[in-house]
Each structure stands twice: as structure tokens, then as C-alpha cells.
Amino acid sequence: MDLSLSTRTVGDRTVVEVGGEIDVYTAPKLREQLVELVNDGSYHLVVDMERVDFLDSTGLGVLVGGLKRVRAHEGSLRLVCNQERILKIFRITGLTKVFPIHTTVEDAVAATD
Amino acid sequence: MATVELRFSAQPEHVRTARLVAAAVARRAGVDEAVLDEVRLAVGEACSRAVGLHLSNGLTAPVRVVLTEEEKLFSIEVGDEVPGPAGGPEGTVSGIDATLDPDTETEDEMGLAVISGLVDDVEVTSGEGGGTIRMSWPVSGASDRP
């Protein structure tokens, strides 16, 4: 399965809906998408991972890279994820302390802290 | 003797194939269904790391994956051919802390951190002939045999 990406704007937030597998082969596409959004001036990103079937450390690296880019513009990068097997990867790498993780896109879009 | 041995050219697109094969062989060997996700992820991490090492060192040699079904154990060895410091064990797998600093993109370190967080029995070695990550999981005994 390949990676699917779609973006939409909600207020001042840009929601990136990701589906499929994020691994060493597909992660560069996600990286390009995030870089493009930041270059176009979208600094408040919500990455919706509800339809992600697989995530590895390459994907984590891309998300951390995205976070660094938006932070350089005083922006934010929030994740939406309820899947235990994906959340587990964030926990074992300690990245739950780095990313705000929300249960719904609505929550993530409304969050301000 | 290895149950299944796989060699693939060091390209990112083949890592998914290695994950699928490893999960299929693990299931057949009787690895618990709940653990298959971990097997899939750990093999993917080890293969991604090996592919990265081969590409960054300009090696055309394939990455090797050896899946072995033993009586009470299912083990996976992922080998690269990038020479490391000779003399065996590299020591412990890098700690999780190394990956926490968001100021660095250390995917290689993060991969090892994921593996060490997922797999209880893991051994990373390196030598003149290359490096190996060996991981194993207990087998429940009720293997998927007719």
C-alpha cells in the first residue's frame, strides 16, 4: 500500500490527512508535503494519522523535521491519532512528550496551548 | 538452517516486501498474533537502517534477512555489509534519550531505539564483514501448521 496525502484548511490551521504506510520508501513524500506547506506560509499544521496503517522511525523523523520547521516560524504541529499500535511507537521513542497528540481533528484544530 | 532467507537490493521500496515476508514466516512459526505488529516494525527498522548504510556507503551488495524457526524461538537476523569496528559487539543499543532532541534528525538512532523499545531480545554486532541485528521472539508452540 502506498501513501495517500490530502490537505485542507480549517481557519488558520492546515489539516494534512495521511493514509497508508509511512516508511523509508514513502516518508520522503510526506516530508515534501510538509516542507511545501511551510514554504507556502502554513505554520499551524494538524497531521491526521487515523488512516495510517504503518509508521516507522523514518516517518517519526519526518514529523520531527516538520515540527522543527513550523517552530522556526512560531507555528505548531499537532497529531491526531487513536490507534494503539501507532501511539505505541510515539511512546517508546519518548515523542509523546514532543508532539501534542489529539483524539479528534476538531480537538486539534481548536487547541491553542 | 534458516527457514527462509531473503536478499534484496538495498533500495527503500523493497523494505516493505521484507516486512511482509517476515510477518508471514513469523505467523507460520507460531509467533503470537499480538506480537506480529512488533515483528513487522522491528524488521522494517532493521532493514531501513541496513538500506541506509548501504546507500550512504555506495555499496551495491544486497541486504540479507535470515528468518529462523527454532523449537521455542523465532529469530530474525538482518545483515549489512558495511564494515564497522572489528571485534564484535558494538555494546548496547543506543538509548531512547539520544532520539529525544528534536534539534537533530537522527533516523538511524531512532530506528535502533524503536527496535530496543520493541524487542526484549536484541543483539547488535559489527565487524569487518558488516553489521548484524539479531532479534528473537518466543514461539507459543501452536504453530500454523496443517
UniProtKB/TrEMBL annotation, chain A:
Q: Where is the STAS domain?
A: 3-112
**Top-level taxon of the source organism:** Bacteria
> Annotated Gene Ontology MF terms?
anti-sigma factor antagonist activity
* Pfam families according to UniProt: STAS
Query: What keywords tag this UniProt record?
Result: Phosphoprotein
Q: List the signal peptide residues.
A: none
CDD domains, per database record: STAS_anti-anti-sigma_factors
Write out the function statement from the record.
Positive regulator of sigma-B activity. Non-phosphorylated RsbV binds to RsbW, preventing its association with sigma-B. When phosphorylated, releases RsbW, which is then free to complex with and inactivate sigma-B.
Name the family: Belongs to the anti-sigma-factor antagonist family.
Protein name from the UniProt record:
Anti-sigma factor antagonist
Automatic annotation (TrEMBL), chain B:
Supply the InterPro entries for this chain: Anti-sigma-factor_SerPK, HATPase_C_sf, HATPase_dom
Output the CDD domains linked to this UniProt entry.
HATPase_RsbW-like
Residue ranges of the Histidine kinase/HSP90-like ATPase domain? 8-137
Protein keywords: Kinase, Serine/threonine-protein kinase, Transferase
Gene Ontology MF term list = protein serine/threonine kinase activity
> PANTHER family, alphabetically?
ANTI-SIGMA-F FACTOR RSBW (PTHR35526:SF3), ANTI-SIGMA-F FACTOR RSBW-RELATED (PTHR35526)
Protein name as it appears in the record? Anti-sigma regulatory factor
